[in-house]
## 1
Amino acid sequence: MLSAVSITDNAIAWPSSQELWRALSLADYNTRVVVIGATLLGVAAGIIGTFAYLRKRAMLGDALSHATLPGIAIAFLISGEKNLSLLLLGATTTGVLGILAVVAMRKIPRIKEDAAIGIVLSVFFGIGMVLFSLIQQTDTGNAAGLTSFIYGKAAAMIARDAILIGVSAAAILIGCALLYKEFRLICFDKSFAAAQGWPVAAIDLAMMAMVVCVTVVGLQAVGLIMIVALLIIPAAAARFWTDRLSTMTLIAGTFGAISGYLGSTISALTPRLPTGAVIVIVTGILFFASMFFSPHRGVLASVIRQWALSRRIAFQHLLRAMAEHEESGHTSPATFEAVFVKRSWTRSALTRLIRRATSGGLLDRAALPALRLTSAGRDNATRILRNHRLWEMYLIRYADIAPSHVDRDADEVEHVLAGDVVRDLEQALNSKDEIAPSPHPTEQPV
């Protein structure tokens, strides 16, 4: 016997394996329409969002999405019905007006772009909310059906909506392909493009027209509050993975597609979760995963590189201290205490460095506890000391750094000197093989 379920029960029922397979395979018609529409929207938003992101138009998309609200309300008040075509036409009209308002205010000397965007966003959204209040007081009905444009209601998407999104996505893909060179030029060097005679304003307007198109067709799926997430977050996530614009565009489109597919599928499996919010959450997960785990720009990779650099610097300091000990004319091998006073390292850290140098064949194991460089260790230490002295002499001669302060400045740079930089220093100082003498008047701990 089935137990009665209260209408106030807000618990999320987890799907069975059969329901999961039906959702992933798009077996149900309604699920198929929603997922395909959301996926196509994600692709279009990710691709055009890449150019908007690089053009530093991220917040302009937010202003645009909020500027569509008065148009939706005005179209409803004029027509007296919830006709999707008329509502989208109204959204497009006021959205374009919002963009033009931002552009016009940017020309006022004392109003910067961020202030103009904030003004348009708040004023248009406020007008929209007032008009929605008026709609609730009319005899034509209430605004319950219009709130889907604020928060999104992808579950109500029908085949006509998915076709509209698909046509818009195809138009945006074709437009980006045809204007790829122009978009790339104004994204990276607008001044050069203007100097070469390119119509920068027209290209910018074409780009923003595509942003308007994505924003308007995406209102039904994710709502005006969250459509900006689909425009910007996939592009920002893709930026962590590549330095090439073409690759970044493809990755952003892929991330947008994944967000639309997974978000709408998860929402289909758990109907009480709003589709637009779930899509944005999936987009956010992709962004944070990219931010932390991308191999070149990710936080984890940066931490590992910094850790490896710190280890390498400490190791080079040990070898340089050994080379300076030999250079000072000491006939006996260095001791732990003699090296320890050279730098402000801890005893445990120095012990680990000596252990690493010994296991790497740079310190003579047989001489322990005395510290003596092997032939390989001496070669490495001589190279490190020579680079340090070259940089010191360069700073003294060309950067006007006092000899008493040059050691500290050289310490910050010498460990990242590339081979071509060392060759340039050699040419500047007419030095090829010899180690320059220490510029310090007396031997001091380093």
Note: Residues 200-238 form the longest helix (39 residues).
## 2
Amino acid sequence: MRIFISTGEVSGDLQGSLLVTALKRQAIVSGLDLEIIALGGDKMAAAGATLLANTTAIGSFGILEALPFVLPTLQVQRQAIAYLQQYPPDVVVLIDYMGPNLGIGNYLRHHLPQVPVVYYIAPQVWVSSITTRDTARIMAVCHKLLAIFPGEASYFQNKGANVTWVGHPLVDRMADFPSREVARSQLGIKDDAIAIALLPASRRQELKYLLPVMFQAAQSIQSKLPHVHFWIPLSLEIYRERIEKEIQNYGLQATVVSNQQQQVLAATDLAITKCGTVNLELALLNVPQVVLYRLHPFTYWVATKILKISFPFASPVNLMVMKEAVPEYIQATATPENIIQSAMELLLNSQSREKMQTDYQKMRQCMGDVGVCDRAAKEILQMLS
């Protein structure tokens, strides 16, 4: 049996790798001989998928931000469609990555309608103020939708989709993380040291819009707490040179590491982070965090003023509980001053940390029981029959 999985960017590669591992495990239980072909990254390849193309660096969020990736994205789409034409799979799984995946899904709908399509981790149109068109497009290309947020499942069910809530896959991953004590020992962090994680980017555009404001805040925090040390785990090695150069420019006491994100997240006292999947990992580890995000001003203006798009929250932690469990600063509010104020409050005020951790526990209850990836894999394998 052949399964084709399509995803992109760093977070998609992570989620895809967890799913590939579960699919392989469930295939053995079911006595299936499984071949998995994928658009993804190194993590998926390591889990046992055969990569048709590496899409971890092909991704953006926004209008102007997407322009450099239009041609690479179209090339990957054409490559995927050519493969599907020649080797029709038994089932297709789409993971997030809305633009490219809707293109692939539309092709399947019109040319290979017999191939079942599962959308796993659908784009978060369910939290937007304007969702009708994108919701219809997502529902049109998939036979089954596997939801990871309770609110997502309710939203699509109310729209008439064939949807199953499986829980959030990061629940399964947390067993792989070291304890705080082990992580600090592995990184050489002393017991009384203050360690802060800086998580500026998984996309290239984020280096441009997030790194300066994050490093300005870090510079000020360092002046207030001279013994603080910053830890920056790389999402992609190609970002190392730019980040190390900026560390020197801002005079930060910081260490850049590769392939040690789990240790950094588990070891630190606070994280100043971009908005994304990593927010959930930090919350599951009970690490206090301050979240920020910025886009090109034109993109943000078009989205909010012309398209009238609004979101109740941006961080997935806050979306889980539908309240501001973690401080999030978007666009104009993402200033060094705001970040510094929230960061110092969390570092110095135990009550603020305790309140956040109480909200973390509520979030954890909304993420489902362990076994998420296996539940998703079983749903997908059922489509094979």
Note: The first strand starts at residue 2 and ends at 6.
